[in-house]
Design a protein that fits this description.
Layout (H helix, E strand, L loop, with lengths): L5 E7 L4 H12 L4 E8 L5 H8 L3 E4 L8 H14 L4 E4 L8 H4 L6 E5 L14 H9 L4 E8 L9 E8 L6 H28 L1
Parallel strand pairs: 1-2, 1-4, 2-3, 4-5
Antiparallel strand pairs: 5-6, 6-7
The structure holds glycinamide ribonucleotide (GAR).
């Protein structure tokens, strides 16, 4: 029976390596949760492929498919409700989640960001841009942050954060790989923490 498990939607736009790490960790750690939906702004990407291979429902939803922004957000909320989603995990979702969707999931939506927020966050700070900015600023350490999502980019309360060293010969790509490896352990730990918080 899966009825007592927390039902998770992951929102992705790319490779989905965090999604894959979460999927594996839920099994390995035997967390009382299940990823039941992968929502993406891209019809085809690593994340959507992984979902299909693992019999997880997919939803390709973009603003362009709708006559208005309101219709777009309503469709997103409708799809989430159809799947009885309890928690949303943004995992490399490169779009701002509409406010109307955020307000439906207060305290129940997390994002992973590849830096030590509040540093190197905000609009335009995503993916490789973050690591380029970290190197340009001459930082000696960076990391990853899992935070609650609110209406402002990367501004919600921090749930968990872990540091990663910046090495003298790092390029944005080598740094991104080191941070991503950290994310793959951090996000499952953050999910576990959220599930524990919700129980208490
Ligand atoms: C991850 O590094 C994630 O933190 C970052 O995109 C990558 C997605 O990788 N997200 C952001 O920059 C959001 N601001 P993945 O698709 O392999 O999980």
């Amino acid at each position: 029976m899966t009825t007592n498990k927390t039902r998770i939607a992951v929102f992705c736009s790319g490779n989905g390596s965090n999604f894959k790490a979460l999927f594996q960790a839920i099994r390995n750690k035997q967390l009382p949760a299940e990823i039941v939906l992968c929502l993406s702004n891209r019809a085809q990407c690593g994340a959507m492929e992984f979902a299909e291979q693992n019999s997880i429902a997919t939803a390709h939803i973009t603003e362009k498919q709708f006559a208005s922004f309101d219709e777009f957000t309503l469709a997103m909320v409708k799809r989430l409700k159809e799947h009885h989603i309890d928690i949303i995990l943004l995992a490399g979702y490169m779009r701002k989640v509409p406010d109307a969707v955020v307000s439906e999931f207060p305290g129940k939506m997390l994002n992973i960001h590849p830096a030590l927020l509040p540093k190197f966050g905000g609009e335009g700070m995503y993916g490789i841009h973050v690591h380029t900015a970290v190197l340009e600023a001459g930082e000696t350490e960076t990391g990853a942050t899992v935070h609650f999502v609110n209406e402002e980019y990367d501004k919600g309360e921090i749930l968990l954060q872990r540091t990663v060293p910046v090495l003298p010969d790092d390029t944005p790509e080598t740094l991104a790989a080191r941070v991503l490896a950290c994310e793959h352990a951090l996000y499952p730990d953050a999910l576990e923490k959220l599930l524990t918080l919700q129980k208490s």
